[in-house]
Amino acid sequence: MSMxxxxxxxxxxxxxxxxxxxxxxxxxxxxxxxxxxxxxxxAAVFEVLGGLKDFSWLTVGDGAGYDAxxxxxxGYREVLATDLDDAVLAETKAAGLIQNISIExxxxxxxxxxxxxxxLCKEALHHMSRPYAAIYEMFRVARYGVVVIxxxxxxxxxxxxxxxxxxxxxxxxNYVYQYSTRELEKIAYGLNIRGIATKKMMDVYTxxxxxxxxxxxxxxxxxxxxxxxxxxxxxxxxxxxxSYVQAVFFKSTVTVELFDLLAQQNPEWRFLRTDTNPxxxxxxxx
Length: 286
Description:
This protein is α/β, with parallel strands linked by helices. It has helices at 3-12, 18-26, 33-41, 43-48, 66-73, 87-94, 131-141, 181-191, 219-236, 256-265; strands at residues 56-59, 78-83, 100-103, 116-122, 142-151, 195-201, 244-250, 270-273.
């Protein structure tokens, strides 16, 4: 069975598993610790691109449609959710949580060039066998930018691990690709696009956080929040490597003026111009 077939089977059977069904039902509770964790991960959209809610969005690798739901809930008006299998997407749509869905292989999207203004790919690239093919497909289909949120490679970017790296695999059949600020910046430089904004973050998963509420005194909430604050402080001090890297790629269709304005408005983010190839006269691959 191929990796894509395993992935499709996972989502096709997802709702028939009692544990998965319980998890699914918990995802839509906005007062939960799990929801709070996810909000922090969406900072690339909510912070950097929070003023662009009238633009069209595509979510890629959005198995249950949760990414699309969060965008719609935040006021982004036009969102299409996609994944290799639509079994769970269809249920989320039937519940009225999302509006538009489509079956798509991220490594070979069916859309024409520049079909959507922005694309969001959150925690999906590391499941793919050819993630870079998916990245270039998203650049092709996006008119202005691509948002990527992925686990940080602990063996790249300071302070990186120095022990021998080991491959990690998941039960849905994939080798876990992990990313770094450096790697994402190289992609932007290679394409000579307008630029990239990146930010590292720490995330803490506590068992049961999907069902715990963000109430003072709740042990899961207190533990998750405290540990997150401690690790974030250590990350900024250079003592531990980040657990996630968030990035917004800006194509050359984004004006220099807008890029500079967003950089000014988001001082906690690293904005980097990557349209610097002196031999291309400002042209880019996309």
